[in-house]
Write a structure and sequence with these properties.
By secondary structure, the chain is an alpha/beta fold. It contains seven helices and ten strands. The strands form two sheets. It has a six-stranded mixed β-sheet, with helices on both faces. It has a four-stranded antiparallel β-sheet with strand order 2-1-4-5, with helices on one face.
């Protein structure tokens, strides 16, 4: 396969990370002295109640927010701001409506100075990877929500990131499309071996996709938990070990 290829292992090290915001004149501590090690090539899901800092952590890792204190290192190197080693996939695909699927996926490569021929070659590989080879000439208005999100994933992969950062990328999809896209994400991650860090409110999605689940507490005094998901791929949502893990996560949030 004409793989995308990544540079480095995509290991992420977080030490003593703190981040706060000011709301109505009051200081709100969102993250406090967080320690985290993400293994290169793993899939990590981040879950927790609203306001616990999931998206804030992802934005810090993306370089879109600066922490108040602490350090983030990628493959042993200090992370400073945004970088081509990371790609972010948001809940909305955010495609450029005047460009075709091919041109949307190739856009980031051309901005980086890649020749049009090479950009098209890499873009077509990624479009095939997400199952949209027949839609290269289509415009965003001609795509369903699930198809548009596939284009967003292809665009993120085309720039050859070490790390994919996903902020609830499937949250706006209908139930059946969401299940299909979860299967697609799992397949793409296995094939490309990129490090994947996923924020989600869907506990079942976290178990289905991740090697480990980071549970961020709402109470700042509680300690974040890391839960291993030691299940083979592809995962059976109805299997007793899967159901047991789902119950364990739900119990942690006071759900039954």
């Amino acid at each position: 396969m004409d793989g995308i290829g990544t540079i480095g292992r995509g290991e992420v090290t977080v030490r003593d990370l703190s981040k706060s915001f000011t709301l109505n004149g009051r200081r709100l501590d969102v993250l406090r002295n967080l320690h985290l090690d993400v293994r290169g090539g793993e899939a990590l899901a981040i879950v927790g109640p609203s306001g616990c800092g999931k998206t804030t952590l992802l934005r810090v890792l993306a370089g879109l927010e600066r922490p108040d204190s602490g350090q983030v290192r990628i493959d042993g190197q200090s992370m400073e701001g945004v970088g081509t080693d990371r790609s972010v996939i948001f809940q909305e695909a955010r495609l450029l409506p005047w460009l075709t699927v091919l041109r949307n996926v190739a856009f980031g490569l051309e901005v980086r100075g890649v020749t049009r021929a090479e950009a098209d070659r890499r873009a077509r590989h990624c479009i095939r990877l997400v199952g949209l080879a027949e839609f290269e000439a289509a415009y965003p208005r001609q795509l369903s929500g699930g198809m548009a999100q596939r284009v967003g994933i292809a665009r993120a992969l085309a720039v050859r990131p070490r790390i994919l950062l996903l902020d609830e990328p499937l949250g706006a999809l209908d139930a059946m499309t969401k299940l299909t896209m979860q299967e697609e994400l799992a397949r793409i991650w296995r094939e490309e071996k990129v490090t994947m860090i996923l924020v989600t409110h869907d506990l079942e999605e976290a178990i289905y996709l991740a090697d480990r689940v980071l549970v961020l507490p709402k109470d700042r005094g509680d300690v974040p938990q890391l839960i291993e998901i030691d299940l083979p791929h592809p995962r059976d949502r109805s299997a007793p070990p899967f159901v047991a893990l789902r119950r364990r996560l739900m119990a942690g949030f006071g759900l039954h």
